[in-house]
Fold this sequence. Notes:
By secondary structure, this protein is mostly helical. It has three domains: 2-75, no CATH class; 77-123; 140-178. The protein is built from six helices and two strands. The protein has a two-stranded parallel ribbon. β1, α2 and β2 (61-64) form a beta-alpha-beta unit. The longest helix has 40 residues, at 78-117. The model is unreliable at 1-7 and 13-18 (pLDDT under 50). Residues 143-178 are annotated as: Disordered.
Amino acid sequence: MGTVSESASTARARSRLCSRTEIQFWAQVLTDAERTICCSHENESRIKCWIAARGLSGRYKVIATPVVPDSELIVVDERAIDAAMSEALHREQREAELRQAAARAARARHVFGAQLIAPRARNPHHRPLTHRLPPAIEGSELTEPAATIPTSPAEELAQRARDRHLRLGHPSSSSRLP
């Protein structure tokens, strides 16, 4: 009877020791970007909570296995292989969803671009963002390109004088102006 109680207390002590070492071990493993975590049944919920507290629950799968020494905590079994396969399938599905989202965005850009080209064709109540210019009058500065854009006040005054002479019908006088 004494040996049974000793072995039970030894097992409890070992499980307590294993639980501490497992948590420390997973603190290191999670930084090494492992995907499938195999742990003891006793520590499965602790490790899941530990992972969830760090916002990593979607990235890691926790599998409960019998208590094993720290050197063999990562156990490759059928469940781990199934988890890896389902992760690969999930990754492919995610890539397909991203491709579909990119195609939807391209279609939306195309439709939006068409609205920019002809907004009234899509919405009769649409108001243009810019005001329309008055119809061009022949001989006005709107129909004739400006020779230069003035950069100083003196150049601006000279440009106004040239424009005034052009409007009054003295094109030859513009060549004599500075």
